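Milestone M4 deliverable, item 7.
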Amino acid sequence: MEPRPCSFYILASIFGLFLLFLYGPTFTIAILSFQGPEGGLTFPMRGASLHWFRDLFQEQAVGDIWGAFRRSFVLGLMVMVTTVVVSVMGGLAFRKRFAGSAVLFQLVVASLVIPSILVSLGVGLMFSQGGLGVHWATSGFGAQLTWTLPFGLLIMFAVFNRFNPAFEEAARDQGARAWQTIRHVVLPIIAPSLVGVGLFGFTLSYDEFARTLLTAGSYNTLPLEIYGMTTNVTTPVIFALGTLTTVFSFVIIGGFLLALKLAQSRQAKAGSDAGKGV
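Output delivered:
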């Protein structure tokens, strides 16, 4: 077996340092969340227990942790569904060139390069001056869509650029209407991509801070609540909250990956059945 070149070990070391930099803070918070009742916010640890996790589920003197979690979860679902639906519609619309399509595309993508805090400020002012009220389910919802929709649209543009229109032509030859072709042909084929867009939409919304800061109104989402806790909570309960939210995020990602795998297996089975039929 030939020895590996020196460059391999250099690149492996750089990658290892990158992983340490990326996940080191998360592991540190997870470790400190298991401190004993007398534990603090720094090392060395004072015992080991689940005290702060139990304390997290009791009535808190400050903040509304579980209310903020529910709001973030509901808002994430709203953003996810809207992002998937609008992205599919936009992807279908942009399959053919139309007047102003290039300008519209540039306007959509431009929201990614505008500073998030300015988007938050602008959306909040627009809603307050329009008499609509600033609320996480209205202005907060709109502000987060300016972040998730461009990603969803870019994914769907790439998907439909590689989509073979022969499948749709075959369905129309069999007498299928436009909506039947989309429902029974297009959507099943692009289902794995829809799972990916949904994952982007939910996760980007769930942890979004800057675009929600000035648009959430009187009720915080979870990222805003955690930020507020950093100024007045001096116990490892905040680390326990961070650990639970991280675990929840991984569970959500795992669920989406499972859904993606199921969609891909169904797609492969459908293709195999169609081949046998031919």
